[in-house]
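Readers of this paper often ask what the protein records in our data store actually look like. An entry from our holdings is shown next, in its original layout:
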Amino acid sequence: MEIIAGVDEAGRGPLAGPVVAAAVILPPNHQVEGLADSKKLSPKKREKVFDEIMAVAEVGIGRVSHQTIDQINILQATFKAMRKALGSLKQTPSKALIDGYKLPDQVIKNVGVIDGDNKVESISAASIVAKVTRDRIMLSVDPIFPEFGFARHKGYGTIQHVEALNKYKATPIHRKTYQPVKANLPGMRWLKISRRIGKLGEQLAALQYLKNGYQVIEMNRTCSHFGELDIIAEKNDEWVFIEVKTATKDQLGGPILKVDPAKLRKLESAIQYYLSEQDEEKDIRLDVVTVMLDKKPIIKTYKGIALD
């Protein structure tokens, strides 16, 4: 029996975040209902169909970062994501059906299908998987950049998104080669004048935790008169409270690596205040992260700082 994989992508147009592709092999006589172009389904319906697809189909997912998009352009990045999606399937398909145009330089025989996400069930399934996967990625970064509203527009160039770009400048997850991002890249002088050096360091640290499998719960949580918790993250039923120290290359000595006893006491009090407002108990940990801002930021993490 010929094994057919449908392939589609999500995220070619946004100003921020990765492009994601999915390859889906549906079993014969599957019972998945509601397969259609993901753009025609409501978010709630997409999530439901996504779960049904993942339960019965073989799925490969390819993700290509915003940095790579800037390096090789979005078309080549999309091709790369599709190749990664096909390559992550457990079994090699006999043929791949690609939404739109044929995938070049691919060892697997493939055919482009114009409007395939409306015509071919496996491509529709791939469209849904890619869309839901990418939306979840953008939801995960929303707490790191709350002023941008990524949970609402998923990185697309809405009026609200462009207004935020003009006011706050581009974030570390924006695609620098896209307009209007290109016109709003923050220089070191702007960061200093706007007093956003520390904010950028916190964002970079939070992205590092996200990359390592943590869920970022909240940024800059004020805990009464005890002060602020820079980052609150979660993983494996443990809350991680992260203090971030940021410096620029021209600051002698760089970031302070050590949290002095007075600051440590304030952090402990702030953590206890935060915990008193929660309805559940979890293990806790305090980390300190130092960020040296240069052409390529240097990030160092010191885990498990002792609390009294």
Notes: The radius of gyration is 22 Å. The chain has two domains: 4-141, 195-302. The longest helix spans residues 121-141.
